[in-house]
Amino acid sequence: MRVSQQDKVSDFTNTAPEAWSDQQVRAFLRSLFDAAIASAQPSRILAKALPEKPKGRCIVVGAGKASAAMAAALEEAWPDVALEGVVVTRDGHAVPTQHITILEASHPVPDARSAQAGQAVLNAVSGLGEEDLVIALISGGGSSLLTLPVTGMTLEDKICIGQELLRSGATISEMNTVRRHLSAIKGGRLAQAAFPARVVTFVMSDVPGDDPAVIASGPTVSSPTTAEDALAILEKYDITVPESAKDYLRQQKKASEKQAATHPDNSVHMIATPYLALQAAARAAGKAGVRTLVLGDALEGESRVAGTVLSGIALSAKQHQVPVKGPAVLLSGGETTVTIQKGEKPGKGGRNTEFLLSCALALREAEGIWVLAGDSDGIDGTEDAAGALVTPTTLKRGQKSGLNAEKFLKNHDSYSYFEALKDLIIMGPTLVNVNDIRLIFIQ
């Protein structure tokens, strides 16, 4: 079933969960996924968190997949404030605004527009005074969208390092540590450029732990890491690094310069997180009479390993009613990784579909277990699907179509497998980014 946002889903509320059909379970899981995403829509949450309106100018800057939607929500909440500024979002994620300029750039690999956006954001906050206010709208994806290499490095150097990190299996925290220390705008440098103006930052988290210094590499948040940490990560994953980057990090490692000044009343507000999204999904499940168990909002590790582990928990719940008795949903969030070995030529797929194909193999067509996993931003990696669905008949239907699931998993071609079964979830950009949502239903 190729599920789109416009599809009319089957009604699952007129039957007990123990008796739901395959179509009803699919509709139920999709409703939970949609509830999680809806809970993080900027139009619903940003207005409640806004500060007192400034006496001076109000400059709006931002970066991330949700930043344009956040900017539109801010304009709606403050129609009487003369807002100005610029935010950058991923291609296809722009929304109409009246006063705030929306730019688009490439993700997950930056391009020339990313560097242009970085310079435009820095220009927007220059020359401000003490009574001026900068509102920074930050969400996941900002690391590649807001790219400004340090002196001595080229954009091509940063692109090369970013691509190596994406293929290495490094965690998002590790990748953003390197990005921060090779950036002229991240790691709090944007807030430093805005001084003496006050900076109020609103963040939509897409990282395990919700550390604002990690989300979009923290443009307005001082870095808790060092250049030495960045060098250690590059060495750990055997990343090929241009000499310009090595030289810069070595110089920073030796340097003992003071951080540039920032306004003492700068603040950071977390308006949406993976945990809150999972709670919204859990509430929706409860209304349908289904028990829930949140396994965690910050799960990391290899996608295929996570698929095996979570499937084991689901099998225990089905067979032994431990750790929860069915009908129930196991919920989890976080961001797993897919490691591509050097020399491999991967097929199509993201971390969610790789997780799901691993689940299908581990569950081995166990009766009464369905799995939905997807990226809350609507795009799993670089593909057009948010994720996909695993059902008790996934492997059987694949075999009938001549598909070898183990081979597809080995080749990192999970998207193609679920595409052939018409089980991808296609919904387009959601303008939200609170990491991955994984739902396992035990009937």
Automatic annotation (TrEMBL):
Q: Which UniProt keywords apply?
A: ATP-binding, Kinase, Nucleotide-binding, Transferase
Species source reads Acetobacter cibinongensis
Q: Name one Pfam family in it.
A: DUF4147
Give the matching PANTHER family. GLYCERATE KINASE
Q: How is this protein named in the record?
A: Glycerate dehydrogenase
Lineage per the UniProt record: Bacteria, Pseudomonadati, Pseudomonadota, Alphaproteobacteria, Acetobacterales
List cellular component terms (GO).
cytoplasm
Task: Using the record's annotation, list all stretches that form the MOFRL domain.
Answer: 329-436
Task: Give any GO molecular function from the UniProt entry.
Answer: ATP binding
Q: Residue limits of the MOFRL-associated domain?
A: 29-249
